[in-house]
């Protein structure tokens, strides 16, 4: 989590507002060509709501989903890793989950959304928030963390309803395999579910095509399993 993506100099992508966590939240909404489809929350990396995250939402929309990327930083985008770390630490996990649950409220209220549960896909910080959100909100039925960073204690998975498909890099020193194994054990023991955690010959942030660590083959493999997983769980 130390390299700067291309897009951090640009403003956050925002095209919708909605009530969330007692305030007005902003986000980026992408609709499928048909205009309707299952809903998916896309959760940002620690950089903010960047070009990359908006592009993921657009790609999901092209696959038939209504994708909403909530802006957890209120329009701010980090320009360097130290700033990104500060912004991530300034967002308490409980507040992030509150804002994300508000985004779920908004997504499920849209007439374009055709299901009564949502998927959640997130990256780095956002991958961790996928797990925190799914653990707290049973309306999340499909959770897809990409190299998810857990901040502090593991979530309490006793209320988890979602199936979990996770993607991790074998070369990612910030999330060693032992950490992922502990996470998998917690999911199994507390929820009774069986997470599907997959490893790729790649580093952290291998899915972000705006970074030098981008691994096209690993990213393609992870995407090729994510889309059918979401379709199966969301209908």
Automatic annotation (TrEMBL):
Q: Which Pfam families match?
A: DLH
Dienelactone hydrolase domain boundaries? 27-232
Entry superkingdom: Bacteria
Q: Name one GO molecular function term.
A: hydrolase activity
Its recorded name reads Carboxymethylenebutenolidase
Originating organism: Streptomyces resistomycificus
């Amino acid at each position: 989590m130390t390299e700067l993506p291309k897009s951090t100099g640009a403003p956050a992508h925002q095209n919708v507002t909605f009530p969330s966590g007692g305030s007005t939240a902003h986000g980026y909404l992408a609709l499928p060509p048909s205009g309707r489809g299952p809903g998916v929350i896309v959760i940002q990396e620690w950089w903010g709501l960047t070009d990359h995250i908006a592009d993921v939402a657009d790609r999901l929309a092209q696959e038939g989903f209504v994708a909403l990327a909530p802006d957890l930083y209120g329009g701010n985008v980090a320009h360097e890793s130290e700033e990104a770390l500060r912004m991530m630490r300034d967002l308490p996990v409980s507040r992030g989950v509150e804002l994300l649950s508000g985004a779920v409220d908004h997504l499920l209220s849209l007439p374009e959304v055709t299901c009564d549960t949502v998927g959640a896909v997130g990256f780095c910080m956002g991958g961790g928030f996928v797990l925190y959100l799914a653990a707290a909100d049973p309306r999340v039925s499909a959770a897809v963390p990409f190299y998810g960073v857990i901040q502090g204690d593991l979530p309490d998975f006793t209320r988890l309803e979602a199936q979990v498909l996770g993607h991790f890099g074998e070369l990612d020193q910030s999330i060693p395999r032992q950490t992922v194994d502990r996470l998998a054990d917690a999911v199994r023991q507390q929820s009774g579910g069986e997470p599907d955690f997959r490893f790729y010959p790649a580093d952290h942030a291998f899915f972000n095509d705006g970074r030098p660590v981008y691994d096209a083959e690993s990213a393609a493999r992870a995407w090729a399993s994510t889309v059918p997983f979401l379709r199966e769980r969301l209908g």
